Each structure stands twice: as C-alpha cells, then as structure tokens.
Amino acid sequence: MDEVDEKILKLLQRNARISIRKMAKILGLSPANISRRIKRLEEKGIIRGYVAITDNDMLGANCSLLLLISVDGSTDPDMVCHRISEMPDICLCLRSTGQYDIVALADCSNPKHISDLLRRIREVGGIRDITTSLIIDKYKVMQIPFKIGISEYNK
User: Fold this and answer.
1) What is the pLDDT of residues 52-70, one digit of tens each?
2) Domain range spanning residue 70?
3) pLDDT in tens, 16-64
4) For residue 105, what is the domain's CATH number?
5) How many Cβ atoms sit within 10 Å of the Cβ of residue 130?
6) Helices 31-43 and 20-27, interaxial angle, to 10°?
7) CA distance 86 to 89
8) Is the pTM higher than 0.85?
9) 139 SS3 class
10) How far apart are CA 77 and CA 16, in angstroms?
11) String of b and e for 49-87 (b: at least 16 CB within 10 Å)?
C-alpha cells in the first residue's frame, strides 16, 4: 500500500459513493488506475465493504448505549462476543483488555428496549457484570484514521 492507496481510502471513508472519475480528477490519475487500485484493495481485504451511515435517531433508535461487559473466569469471552454480535441492536462489539472483557455499543428505541437488550445479553450466560452508560451525544462516527503509524508496525 502506497501514498496513493491511502489517499483513495481517505476519499472513500469520507464518501463511499464518490465516483471513480471524481477520485481520478482529485488525485491526478486515470480512472482505470483508480479502479485497479480499488479492486486490489478489495481483493487484499483492506476494503471489506461499503456502508451507509444512518442517523439512528431519525430511525427511532434514539438511545445509544455503551456496554462494558465482564465475563466469569470459566466462560470464553469470544463466544460471548459472537453471541452478542448477533443481536440486531448491537452496532459494535469488541474484545478488550483490562477491567472489561467486552465493549459494545447498542442503539435502542427507549428504556424498555434497553431493559430487554440487557436481559437478552444476560441470557447468553457467563456474564459476571454489565456496566452501562447512556450516550448523550456523538461527535465522530466511522472514518477511522488508518495512518497512525501502521506502516511502522508492518515491517
């Protein structure tokens, strides 16, 4: 991956619907070159897909919840993470180190929905503790910075 690939990724992160022609114009390259590069990034798995970032408040899911989950010592945290990830209300599920084994983000429509989600998570089994925090505002969603010294670690 070179500097041009990184610029292509930045453009796609800002707007996954940007045309090949517009990217080519911005980067001063031919559309064929941009297409080849994107295809290669997709084949390598660097680009894993394209998503629409929705305003969940407008869709009725106006209670975003941060879930910090600890599992008991005899439970496989990966299994719990996989089971939680299958729940439709879960937007993000991560294995973590430290005090909590799993960090998840959920979008719910109201307090009853939150209560139902917590019940379903506890039914997975092996949950020692769930700490929740209601998200009151979002300042940045998606657009993950990928040039934070990644090349240093891939040598």
Assistant:
1) 776 666 766 678 899 999 9
2) 63-135
3) 899 999 999 999 999 999 999 999 999 999 998 887 776 666 766 678 8
4) 3.30.70.920
5) 16
6) 110
7) 9
8) no
9) coil
10) 33
11) eeeeeeebeeeebebbbebbbbbeeebebeebbebbeee
